[in-house]
Amino acid sequence: MSSRLFRILFFAVVCSAAPQAAHAQIYSWRDSSGTLVLSNTPRDGAAVTFAVAGSRSDIRTTRKALSERAAEYEPLVVAHAAAHGVRPELVRGVIQAESAFNPLALSNKGAMGLMQLMPATASDYNVHNPFDAAQNIRAGVAYLKALLTRYRNNEELALAAYNAGPGAVKKYGAVPPYRETRNYIARIQGHAGAKPPVSTAVYRRVELVNGREVIRLSNVLPVKPVSRHAGIN
Fold first, then answer.
1. What are 61-84's pLDDT values in tens digits?
2. Catalytic residue among 98, 156, 180, 207, which?
3. 180 is catalytic
4. Are residues 96 and 17 in the same domain?
5. Which long-range contacts (CB under 8 A, 24 or more apart) does 72-78 make?
6. pTM for the predicted model, two decimal places
7. Within this chain, do residues 88 and 167 fall inside the same structural domain, yes or no?
8. CA distance linking residue 97 with residue 113, whole number of Å
9. Are 144 and 230 in contact (CB under 8 A)?
10. Residue 216 forms beta bridges with which residues?
11. 8, 117, 158, 168: which has the fewest C-beta neighbours closer than 10 Å?
12. In a shared domain, residues 38 and 128
């Protein structure tokens, strides 16, 4: 096994283990096709396996291995996700979709860095250098948490707002019918895996339209607007 492959496997297994990861046992076995499987949990017959990035041999793991670029920012992702109570898988998915873990990414609309912060969002969260990974991830996760709070942990709505803005979600009372936004959500959910159950509560509000009261029903909790959004990249 090459030293590069060993580092990938070690980081993928250890970073996903419990706090006592330094003492974790690594298990291995061959599946029905003869592929070597590595895991930090004993074989249970139901493990989903993933190919190891950069491997030239038939090796798989029970947790998807991080790319070398993603692994570089994993400590920041884990720390800020834990600080805000956000799933690290979701944060990784957003970064992958936004910048493919490129800290110097700059969109044609001005979104910057790993989590593609718009200038207004960077200012709102006291980011002095949006291309600094630590500042960018700190602010991006904080903003994502604000959206999750606004939409009662409905990840689809939070991601839609991160991409298209809270105004678009408010306009439609749901995920906007934009192909880019829907593809964006699908890509992140595919990367992040299962999400927590979504609230099924329905809220009623009354709006004045041309002097007439109009009743609106939505699964989005009516709250005060959050700070300016990251925008569509």
1. 555 556 778 889 999 999 999 999
2. 98
3. no
4. no
5. 72/101, 73/101, 73/103, 73/114, 73/133, 73/137, 74/11, 74/15, 76/133, 76/134, 76/137, 76/138, 77/137, 77/141, 78/15
6. 0.59
7. yes
8. 12
9. no
10. 205
11. 168
12. no
